[in-house]
Amino acid sequence: MIFIEKKLIIKKIKSILSNKDDWEKKLFKICDIIKYNLKKYDWVGFYFSDLINKQLKLIAFSGEETEHTIIPFGRGVCGQVANSNKPLIIPDVKSEKNYISCNINVKSEIVVPILIDNINIGQIDVDSNTINAFSNMDKIFLEEICELVSKNYDLNKN
Question: Which residues, at least 6 apart from 141, have a Cβ–Cβ distance to it below 8 Å?
Fold first, then answer.
């Protein structure tokens, strides 16, 4: 990932979050900007937490359709992050025992939580069709996006 690309994407995301669109539309736009500007990011989605029912709900994504629109806490990579509140990078999904396959082409995954006051309100999930696609730099980049989303969450949620 080129540093300039990252800064331009962050700038575009800040602009999206400050516009008058509804919350879901903003999230879809953010997913598109990330997916279409970073080659190894083949699927990008936002899941948000239902803390009462202990599950994640897919709100917005860019990429192929998925049947996994509801994920229980603890299940799959997203569910593990919902429990731990810590980012997870899976270099090769075939080696992950607690993995939910959304697409047979996916080779690696990164999930980063969106936190408000240490409460996991959601997460960004990125899949790649390339093995070992994600690094610590991707984690830092996605954490910055999650921080922007969390700061705008109360103002924009439906």
Answer: 1, 6, 9, 10
